[in-house]
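Quick note —
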Amino acid sequence: MIIFDIDGTLLDIEGFQEELIPLIRKIEQFGYTISLASGRTLPNVTPIQQSLAVSGFVVGENGGMVWDTHAGFPIRALADGERTREAANWLASQIDGLDPAGIESNRWRETEWCLKEVDNYEAIRDAIAGSQYNELSIVPTGFAIHICTPGLDKSTGVEFALEQRGIDPSKVIAVGDAANDIPMFELCGFAVAVNNEHDGVAEAADIITQQKGTSGTIEFLKQFIQAVEIP
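Predicted structure written out below.
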């Protein structure tokens, strides 16, 4: 199995690169299952899975939500996000201009909360660290600031989903680009970073692509297919 992050890895601001989807589908034709693990909500991730026509599972909300309809498993929420929403409201009383409603997709978010103020990461992190909400994690992805339930990250959801399928994590490749991908990198047997802008990502990966972002993902896919095709 190969597990891909979405934003900054499969998708950029312009959507999918034209080359990407045929490469993804070719890998599945070789018998390798493609799964997705994202900070997005399940309603955001599921159409992407359908567009790619892949047969793996979906992990959303940085590990909080797991859905593996292809293997016949129900949707599972691995945490209750009520306290993260409380923390967002508290932060709005501490940081001028912070919008506690956060990003639009929060309306579907069940296990965490996301804020739009990516430039305020350090202020948000420090405020939470010195507050009654200091057990919560603050994770930047470049697209949003995630307020996460303690002990919950991409590795939590991915490990749960792999256990359902009976797959050893050491036999899985993880591909990502940001700090929230590091726990998934550490869980899986091999990790590919398609960017090194975020602290710790390069160090957690086994390889870093020469191209960056979605172009790096295409670079990896072509190299993987070439290796598989060698008799």
